């Protein structure tokens, strides 16, 4: 009697991947999501008989074993095993159609499928099945109810990362590319590298924490090496990336950290990894984010007598923006009420449990002030809630003395932003992280947070002797309001002309007073160039004026910087720099003091993209990139970087120098390989300008 043998296994890829929303993955193997049925068609050498034994064996890891839970043996007649189910859909002669439903909390990863019949084991060619998290499955902890949100946070492979400054936010297009070739394999490599146990691989919280550690190269040879030095000669400048695909492909090929990244690169790559694994994820940008506050919820900013910010004295800093990620899940490890978005951050800032990793921290815990909850909620809370205290350093009898010239309690954690669902616009999600400033809920949340964080009193944090006596045991938070002054003194900083490189920078400081009477105000203003991390790169100029205001009135004082003062610095730095204006006002009659700072970004001429609105699959079309240099300066060493997922691979055009008034035009022949709306992203980089980018969508039919 011939023993039962398997002659083939059909993974029914097109129907399974359509149902599992995995048909986008550019990979030969079957990709499915947990907790949802998929079908396999088994072909046999003869018809099945009642006495025949047939089982599907799913193994994960190096040496799968039943007792370790890494080998599952599923028999159609014995339905449930470890939460997995299998059933016979139909038998047709020598064919047997089986339906397999993995457990909604199965470990994610790469499984090998073997079919056992009696003593025979059949190993199908390419018998690898990738099992991912499933936001479509109600029993999966990453379940997301809204289809529009799943489309955005799991399936969208393009998006924006918001950068710039609170005064001028702009969107940087970013290609996440979670479906591109080798990206899923790179994520599986990271999962293996994380050494997470099978139990831990069931939990998106543990997985996201591990990925936040592995996306930076610190302490584990992870994906991206951070560099904020301004010198990127031995790698790619952080400004030169337009997506995660090149980075993850290169990492997967070399298994060595890719050089170099800054916060938006870490967030872009981590977003790709989480979406690729099936966890809903979004990039979150916070403007004026506090760093290294030693959890005392205060950032000290030191100014010299000309009102210029000093780098050397501050341990802590305010970054113009910082980007991290939110991932969506139920937190089964926490008390009720903390499900939903969780902040994770792969930018290496501080060690947590001995590694550079951060999160998942429930966004609701940040809002409610429950900063004792895991993971790293104190750190995230401080990033969006610290106070900013300004000190002027003056020489008194040859010694440095510190004078406090202002405290801002609402200046940190502004305009928290992410891309809107299904739309190409910025959505402000500050309300998810914080109650409205000055509201009763905000005060209660703050008191709650302060009961877990012991902030020090108001003493300058630099290591020098202070003129301020240390307040004894006074750890009360500063009153959460704008500093109330006797005169109602108020400062505003604006630009009065567009800030084009090569032109004079024309800005103004407006001094307002609301109280009746005659007032004399000493105004000090300074203009500097700084990195987005708050580090000053160059001093451009200062003003000092004494003005007289009568009653409730205001006066605008111009601050103008000639091109010669800044163009040399602008051409020599590798990063995008911002214009920082700081103003200190002191009212002589009442000794009221107020300090205000504003960061602004340069404005650039646009790149335009010319191409048809629609194209057909595998039919070539031409895409042209046009840029006219409307600035008064030559742009040197121009490079145009372009990428279109599903259309063409990342391409670089060397453009040389573009003189004022000149027009650059580059063309690329595109062959679309995937259906639907696809985006083309372009970025122009030169010595003078780092950040002109644009994107355009095309429908492939």
Give a summary of the structure in a few sentences:
With about 700 residues, the protein is an alpha+beta fold.
Keywords for this structure?
alpha+beta, Immunoglobulin-like, 4 domains, six-stranded antiparallel sheet, 12 helices, 39 strands, 41% strand
Describe this structure in words.
The protein has 701 residues and is α+β, with helices and mostly antiparallel strands. It folds into 4 domains: 6-132, Immunoglobulin-like, CATH 2.60.40; 147-452, Transglutaminase-like (Coagulation Factor XIII, Chain A, domain 2); 489-601, Immunoglobulin-like; 607-700, Immunoglobulins (Immunoglobulin-like), CATH 2.60.40. The chain contains 12 helices and 39 strands. The longest helix is centred in the middle third of the chain and has 15 residues, at 263-277. The relative contact order is 0.09. Mean pLDDT is 92; it is low at 461-482.
């Amino acid at each position: 009697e011939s023993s039962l043998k398997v002659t083939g296994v059909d993974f029914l890829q097109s129907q399974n991947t359509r149902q599992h929303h995995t048909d986008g993955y550019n990979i030969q193997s079957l990709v499915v999501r947990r907790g949802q049925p998929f079908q396999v068609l088994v072909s046999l050498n003869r018809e099945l008989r009642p006495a025949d034994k047939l089982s599907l064996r799913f193994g994960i890891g190096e040496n799968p074993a039943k007792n370790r839970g890494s080998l599952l043996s599923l028999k159609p007649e014995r339905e449930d095993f470890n939460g997995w189910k299998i059933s016979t859909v139909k038998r047709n002669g020598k064919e047997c159609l089986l339906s397999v439903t993995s457990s909604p909390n199965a470990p994610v990863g790469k499984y090998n499928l073997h079919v056992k019949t009696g003593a025979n084991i059949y190993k199908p060619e390419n018998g690898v099945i990738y099992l991912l998290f499933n936001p479509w499955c109600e029993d999966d902890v990453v379940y997301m109810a809204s289809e529009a949100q799943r489309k955005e946070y799991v399936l969208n492979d393009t998006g924006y990362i918001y950068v710039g400054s609170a005064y001028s936010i702009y969107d940087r297009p970013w290609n996440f590319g979670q479906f591109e070739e080798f990206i899923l394999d790179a994520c599986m490599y990271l999962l293996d590298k994380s050494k997470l146990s099978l139990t831990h691989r069931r939990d998106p919280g543990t997985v996201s924490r591990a990925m936040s550690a592995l996306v930076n190269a610190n302490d584990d040879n992870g994906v991206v090496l951070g560099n904020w030095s301004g010198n990127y000669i031995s790698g790619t400048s952080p400004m030169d990336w337009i997506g995660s695909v090149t980075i993850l492909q290169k990492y997967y090929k070399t298994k060595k950290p890719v050089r170099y990244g800054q916060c938006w690169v870490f967030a872009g790559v981590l977003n790709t990894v989480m979406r690729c694994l099936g966890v809903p994820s979004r990039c979150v940008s916070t403007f004026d984010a506090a760093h290294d506050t030693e959890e005392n919820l205060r950032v000290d900013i030191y100014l010299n007598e000309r009102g210029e910010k000093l780098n050397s004295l501050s341990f802590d800093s305010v970054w113009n923006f910082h980007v991290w990620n939110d991932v969506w899940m139920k937190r089964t490890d926490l008390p009720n009420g903390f499900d939903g978005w969780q902040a994770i951050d792969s930018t290496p800032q501080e060690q947590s449990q001995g590694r550079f990793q951060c999160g998942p921290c429930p966004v609701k815990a940040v809002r409610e002030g429950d900063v004792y909850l895991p993971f790293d909620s104190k750190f995230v809370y401080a990033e969006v809630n610290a106070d900013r205290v300004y000190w002027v350093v003056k020489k008194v009898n040859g010694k440095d003395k510190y004078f406090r010239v202002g405290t801002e309690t609402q200046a940190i954690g502004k305009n928290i932003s992410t891309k809107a669902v299904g739309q190409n616009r910025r959505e402000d999600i500050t309300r998810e992280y914080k109650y409205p400033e000055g509201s009763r809920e905000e005060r209660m949340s703050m008191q709650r947070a302060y009961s877990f964080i012991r902030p020090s009193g108001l003493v300058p944090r630099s290591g020098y002797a202070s003129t301020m006596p240390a307040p004894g045991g006074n750890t009360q938070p500063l009153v959460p309001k704008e500093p109330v002054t006797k005169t109602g003194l108020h400062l505003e900083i604006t630009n009065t002309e567009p800030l084009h490189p090569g032109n004079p920078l024309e800005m103004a400081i407006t001094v307002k007073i609301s109280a009746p009477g005659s007032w004399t105000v000493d105004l000090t203003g300074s203009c500097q160039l700084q990195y987005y991390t708050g580090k000053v790169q160059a001093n451009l100029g200062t003003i000092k004026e004494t003005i007289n205001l009568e009653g409730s009135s205001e006066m605008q004082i111009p601050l103008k910087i000639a091109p010669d003062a800044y163009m040399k610095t602008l051409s020599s730095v590798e990063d995008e720099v911002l214009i920082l204006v700081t103003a200190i006002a002191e009212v002589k009659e009442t000794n009221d003091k107020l300090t205000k700072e504003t960061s602004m970004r340069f404005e650039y001429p646009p790149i335009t993209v010319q191409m048809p609105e629609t194209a057909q699959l595998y039919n070539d079309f031409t895409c042209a990139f046009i840029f006219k240099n409307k600035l008064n300066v030559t742009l040197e060493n121009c490079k145009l970087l372009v990428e279109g997922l599903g259309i063409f691979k990342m391409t670089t055009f060397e453009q040389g120098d573009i003189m004022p008034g000149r027009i650059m035009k580059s063309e690329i022949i595109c062959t679309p390989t995937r259906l639907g709306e696809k985006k083309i992203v372009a970025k122009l980089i030169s010595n003078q300008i780092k950040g002109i980018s644009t994107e355009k969508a095309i429908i492939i039919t």
